[in-house]
Amino acid sequence: MDEPANNGAKKMKSILGKLKAMRLMANLSQADLGREIGTSHVTVGRIENGKHDTGIQTLVRWCEACGYEVEFKARAGR
To answer: What DSSP state is assigned to residue 38?
Structure first.
């Protein structure tokens, strides 16, 4: 695997791990979170496992349901 693709995969895995950790720290089951954000527990699990690409609106609802405020930050990395 080439370096940029590997780096992207690592970042995605880190983000997905943080989403799951946020849910667990909020003491929400996948079903609870699904109800809060308007999706199924199956979709929540697929997102956490990297099997389902999701949109920004779902990510924002996810964070808010777990008690987090969303802020976007981008920086030049090259």
So the answer is: T
